[in-house]
Structures are given as C-alpha cells and as structure tokens.
Amino acid sequence: MDIDLNADIGEGFGDYTMGDDAGLLKVITSANVACGFHAGDPVIMDKTVRLALAQDVDLGAHVGFPDLLGFGRRPMQCDPADVSRYVLYQLGALAGIASVAGARVTHMSFHGALGNMAAADFALAEPLVRTVSEFNPDMIISVSTNTQIERAANKFGLRVAATFLADRAYTDDGDLVPRKLPGAVIKDQGQVLQRVKRLLDDGVITSINGKKLAIKVQSILLHGDTPGAVENALAIRAEVESGNGRIVPISRMRLLN
Fold first, then answer.
1. Of the residues 19, 29, 85, 215, which has the maximum number of CB atoms within 10 A of its CB?
2. Among candidates 114, 119, 113, which has minimal Cα distance to 144?
3. Segment (H or E) for 82
C-alpha cells in the first residue's frame, strides 16, 4: 500500500515559531506551507521551501483567509470572487519562492475556516477550485473525502488526494469536529496511532461518537502545531512501513481526477 504522509508547516510569523518544522520534514513526504495569510511570511516560506527541497519533500500551498490574528480559523463573510483572488495570491507567492529555490509546488490545500466553509458550500468551492485550475491544471488538491471541494475538483479535472486528518476528530457525518468542542484535537499519540492502524487495516475510522465510517484515502495528515507532531509522524511512518506499506509523496502517487 502506498500512502502519503503530510503536515501543515511554516506557520510561524516573524520571530515567532510554531511546531518543529525541521523535525517533521525529516519524516513526512509532503508539506503544506502557510502562504502568509493565516500564518507564515516570506522569510519563513523561503526557509521552509529550502528545508523541504533538501529532504525531497513535496511542496504544497496551504491557503487560508487573511486572518493572522485568528490563525485563519475564524469564518469570514467575503465575496467568493474576492476569496478566489486571495487563493491566487497565495499560490503565486509560494510558487515564486519555490521557483527561485529550484523547487515546484505540486499540490495545495485549504486551511481552517476557509477549508471548512468551502467543503460545505459548492458556491464557494467552485470559484476557488477554478482559480487553482487556471493557475496550474496539474495541481493536486489535498482534501478530506466527500466534500464540495472534491466535487469542484472533479468538475475542473483536477486530481485529488483524499486525506485523513490523524489528529482531528470526525463527526458521525464524516465532517471535522469544530475545534471549539472538547475532543476535537487528538493529542494522545496512542490514540492517533490506533486511528491510523484501524484505517490501514480495515479502511474505517471511528467518529467521536463511536460510529464506524468507511473511507478510502491516499494521504494521512498531521498538524504541525499539534503537540507531539514529530513523534506522531515517526510512529505513523513506522506503522505503515511495518505492514509492508510505502510512504510516497503526493506527486508520485496514482491519483484519479
């Protein structure tokens, strides 16, 4: 079994750091890099790109609302056409930095509130994904399964990497449990690993209420700002490889439109 292991990284700002990006980049195969709107800045983006390039890790743009104070986790009521320009701006910023470093951006994902809103609303997802397609029709979108983002990607012929968020709880409907609710973020390494093992062995995840949900994924995601992210990544990688699986970057997987 081939599966990608990725993480959201580059989410510091200025002199402030968040998470052990250097440590994660030694373990993961794909990175989702903050592009300056919800976190990150040009210097951090450049440093992160070069670290990823040195470790042969795929680069992805992690785009969100212009909300540094709220870390992109606060819903914003904006015209979808305007939000599509926010997405374009962030894609272009990371692609430019990557190009100078001799790298390329292979995939993208939507962060926080923007991702949650687009996942539930095709009227928002459609113009955003259209913009991604216009920017680079070969771009892969990393996203949870059964979302409006996936539907929009299918419309515009973009490949999708269905992604399981190992350190986030799911509702009975397969949506992410809102972060404001207890148990939404899973910090216990044993629990994270147990969820991954069940997914690998049985193709199911268990919702926060104990309901079994069958899903098929190509990628497992960790949040770089979750405590113990590096240790979780090491444990997940070891679990995959112990079952004769391979950890493979998103760009080297066979994905369907």
1. 29
2. 119
3. helix 80-101
Cα separation, 245 vs 229, in Å, equals 21
Residue whose token pair is 């785009």: 63
Cβ neighbors of 191 (< 8 A, separation 6 or more) are: none
Q: Domain-by-domain residue ranges, the chain?
A: 2-252
**Is-contact 177 184, C-beta < 8 A?**
yes
Q: pLDDT tens digit string along 163-222?
A: 999 989 999 988 889 888 999 899 888 999 999 999 988 999 999 999 999 988 999 999
Fold classified for 2-252: TIM Barrel (3.20.20)
d(C-alpha 105, C-alpha 59), whole Å = 5
Q: Which of 83, 175, 176 is nearest to 132 (CA)?
A: 83
Whether the model clears a pTM of 0.85, i.e. scores above it, the answer is yes
